């Protein structure tokens, strides 16, 4: 009875902000322990450099960072090189190439040994080629590339302020929100066609129309949601809900992800006067506090991921495929125990999000396919992000949400022959995205306190 209906952003009665914050206080230490102390969850494999932005020519859309940074850092030339956006956006730490298909094919019974970065045995990170599954909400990281990409240490590359901003970043966000525009045939979508739509050349006209329509929709959205009576529990416009609940959910997932990224930028912000990394209350006020709908969407995502992780729990504990490495037995057992601890805590509240209300009406199945295709496109747009660190976290979190949606909408689909087994990259993305959301909730609470105390609010 207390599940959040997708119709409400965060319902007052059952899952107020404080309910989710209480839950987060319980879950967050466990999930942080998992993502910070296990090799399995602190290294992510992705194709960060080899994929071209499929939506626009790089010279237009890919910002060289220096140019992007001009709007944020008044004069790039005037600041020390280490603080420039191009430096801040660089990846740090060991990176290693995937061992390659020939080695993978051997499928060794004993773990491979080799140098995949500090303290990471290959046994913990090797992944075999997987088939693409129709039920994926994201483009698998290895799609259409010979190599499976690089391993990146998430601990060495925290999500924080990088100075990436300006036209390049805006173009990416516009394209992402453009996917929320569900009108028919705006441009062809991937899953049914097998490959990405490409709004270059003449098709760019359509793409522009989509973005403009999305912009209008967003303005309406903001007007509709700025209800001064409800500072933290945003109400939804039921008139729109009646129209299409699923489209609203799509928008909230994107907006909540954007809000979480903004929260980390503001929380881990570089003060270029002192050179200190510290919270920036004015940044929080401008981007989040004065837009309660964004905060509400962030909490909505927290509820959605909590539900996905709770739902995944029984599969993780019973499925023999989830052995978390097949390498060092002690380490694997410790990782498994930490995963199950997160699951147990996330399951300690009554079902917190009711996904069964979605994709129910007549157009349910086709709408679901549309929803899935659009989410895949969002994951493709991430290849257009012109800052390495931002792209890393953008890709990881899109994959995390994609995995959560797959768990919510595909795991109890009676038509499906079997429950899809999640890949390692999906699990890593899911739990790290959950950790990111948990840390956003904590930061928002602290920022709220700072605003109330009048600390540096704009
Ligand atoms: P933006 O955040 O660029 O927002 C653009 C517009 O979207 C706003 O004007 C507003 O109308 C609307 N909007 C903003 N927030 C929301 C929301 N939550 N819901 C709905 N609408 C909203 N920068 C970093 O410093 N570090 C990072 O790790 C980083 N990661 C990024 C990852 C991705 C995928 C992208 C696209 C960008 C990333 N950036 C990062 C850049 C960052 O998100 C901003 O684009 C940049 O800081 C400029 O911010 P802005 O204030 O101009 O507004």
UniProtKB/TrEMBL annotation:
State the residue spans of region: Disordered.
94-116
Q: Which GO terms describe its biological process?
A: protein folding in endoplasmic reticulum
Cystine bridges = 63-68, 387-390
Q: Specify whether RNA-binding is a keyword of the entry.
A: no
The annotated active site, in chain numbering, is 387 (nucleophile), 390
Specify the superkingdom: Eukaryota
Q: How does it sit in the membrane?
A: Peripheral membrane protein
Task: Using the UniProt record, give the first listed, main subcellular location.
Answer: endoplasmic reticulum
Cite the entry's keywords alphabetically: Disulfide bond, Electron transport, Endoplasmic reticulum, FAD, Flavoprotein, Glycoprotein, Membrane, Oxidoreductase, Redox-active center, Signal, Transport
GO cellular component term, pick one: endoplasmic reticulum membrane
| Cofactors that this protein relies on | FAD
Entry keyword annotation includes Iron: no
Positions with a binding annotation for FAD: 160, 162, 173, 255, 258, 287
State the compartments where it is located: Endoplasmic reticulum membrane
The GO terms this record gives for MF are:
FAD binding; protein-disulfide reductase activity; thiol oxidase activity
Per UniProt, subunit arrangement is:
May function both as a monomer and a homodimer.
Can you tell me which family this protein belongs to? Belongs to the EROs family.
Kindly provide the name given to this protein in its UniProt entry: Endoplasmic reticulum Oxidoreductin 1-domain-containing protein
Q: Which organism is it from?
A: Lasiosphaeris hirsuta
Instruction: State which stretch of the full-length protein is shown.
Output: 32 to 489 of 623
């Amino acid at each position: 009875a207390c599940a959040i209906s997708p119709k409400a952003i965060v319902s007052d009665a059952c899952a107020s902000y404080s309910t989710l914050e209480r839950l987060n206080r319980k879950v967050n230490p466990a999930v942080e322990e998992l993502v910070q102390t296990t090799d399995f969850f602190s290294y992510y494999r992705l194709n960060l450099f080899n994929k071209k932005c499929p939506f626009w020519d790089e010279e237009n859309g890919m910002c060289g960072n220096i140019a992007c940074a001009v709007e944020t850092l008044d004069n790039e030339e005037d600041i020390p090189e280490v603080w420039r956006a191009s430096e801040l956006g660089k990846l740090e730490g060991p990176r290693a190439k995937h061992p390659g298909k020939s080695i993978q094919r051997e499928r060794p019974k004993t773990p491979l040994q080799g140098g995949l970065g500090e303290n990471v045995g290959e046994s913990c990170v090797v992944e075999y080629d997987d088939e693409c599954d129709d039920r994926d909400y994201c483009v698998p990281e290895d799609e259409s590339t010979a190599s499976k990409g690089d391993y990146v240490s998430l601990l060495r590359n925290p999500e924080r302020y990088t100075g990436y901003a300006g036209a390049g970043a805006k173009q990416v966000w516009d394209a992402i929100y453009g996917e929320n525009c569900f009108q028919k045939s705006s441009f062809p979508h991937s899953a049914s066609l097998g490959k990405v739509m490409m709004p270059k050349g003449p098709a760019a006209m359509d793409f522009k129309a989509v973005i403009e329509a999305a912009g209008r929709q967003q303005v309406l959205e903001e007007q509709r949601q700025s209800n001064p009576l409800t500072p933290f529990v945003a109400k939804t416009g039921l008139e729109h809900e009646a129209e299409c609940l699923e489209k609203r959910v799509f928008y909230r997932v994107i907006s909540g992800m954007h809000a979480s990224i903004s929260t980390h930028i503001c929380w881990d912000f570089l003060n270029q006067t002192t050179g200190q990394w510290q919270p920036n209350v004015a940044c929080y006020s401008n981007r989040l506090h004065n837009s309660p709908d964004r905060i509400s969407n962030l909490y909505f995502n927290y509820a959605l991921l909590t539900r996905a992780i709770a739902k995944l729990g029984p599969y993780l504990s019973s499925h023999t495929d989830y052995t978390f490495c097949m390498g060092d037995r002690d380490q694997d057992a410790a990782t498994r125990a930490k995963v199950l601890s997160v699951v147990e805590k996330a399951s300690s509240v009554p079902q917190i999000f009711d996904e069964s209300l979605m994709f129910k009406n007549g157009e349910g199945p086709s709408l679901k396919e549309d929803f899935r295709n659009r989410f895949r496109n969002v994951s493709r747009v991430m290849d257009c992000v012109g800052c390495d660190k931002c792209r890393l976290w953008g890709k990881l979190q899109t994959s995390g949400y994609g995995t959560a949606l797959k768990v919510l909408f595909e795991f109890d689909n009676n038509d499906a022959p079997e429950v899809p087994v999640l890949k390692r990259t999906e699990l890593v993305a899911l739990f790290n995205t959950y950790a990111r959301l948990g840390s956003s909730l904590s930061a928002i609470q602290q920022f709220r306190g700072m605003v109330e105390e009048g600390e540096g609010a704009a």
